[in-house]
Amino acid sequence: MPKSHPPADVVTVVIPSRLELLPVIDRVAQTLCEGMEFGEDACSQVTMSVIEAGTNAIQHGHRRDAAKDVDVTFRTFPDRIEIDVHDIGPGFDLSEVNGDITRPEHLLETRGRGIYIMRACMDTVDFRFGPSGTICHLVKRRPAVANSA
Questions:
Q1: Residue 146, in any domain of the structure
Q2: What distance lies between CA 44 and its chain's CA centroid?
């Protein structure tokens, strides 16, 4: 008989495309990470990535059109948190995004750091583009909790 996995706990937050509302998703991410016993560094990595993904959805996907909502779905599993940030924008060409922003030719650029930051902070960062828009899928595995001996 196959081993059954517990279902994910799901929290969904919908915000208008306004940058000043990003702290809402930051707080939800922080609360969920703390509940999963992520350490301070891992919590910061997740919240920073959620803010970057939300910022991209608002600025690039929706061109700051507050009439368009950004949907953020958090799924917590015993071993990880998965986050989908969805906008209804047309998407983009990943090959045209700055790769390593630490390379000399990119050091003075003021934009293009968000995806690099997300990839540095999260275990997985994927983008799905389709007729319903763009989904940035973020995954952070739960750090091992030290056994108290």
A1: no
A2: 12
pLDDT, averaged across the chain:
87
Q: pTM here?
A: 0.85
Find out whether 65 and 108 touch, Cβ atoms under 8 Å: no
Query: CA of 40: how far to CAs of 26, 28, 35, 85, in Å?
Result: 14, 15, 12, 22
Domain assignment of residue 70, given as a range:
9-141
In a domain, 107, yes or no: yes
Mention every residue, 6+ apart, whose C-beta is less than 8 A from residue 127. 91, 94, 134, 135, 136, 137
* Kind and range of the H or E run holding 65: none
Find the CATH number of the domain harbouring 93.
3.30.565.10
pLDDT value at residue 149: 41
Total domains in the chain come to 1
Residue 130: count other Cβ atoms within 10 Å of its Cβ: 8
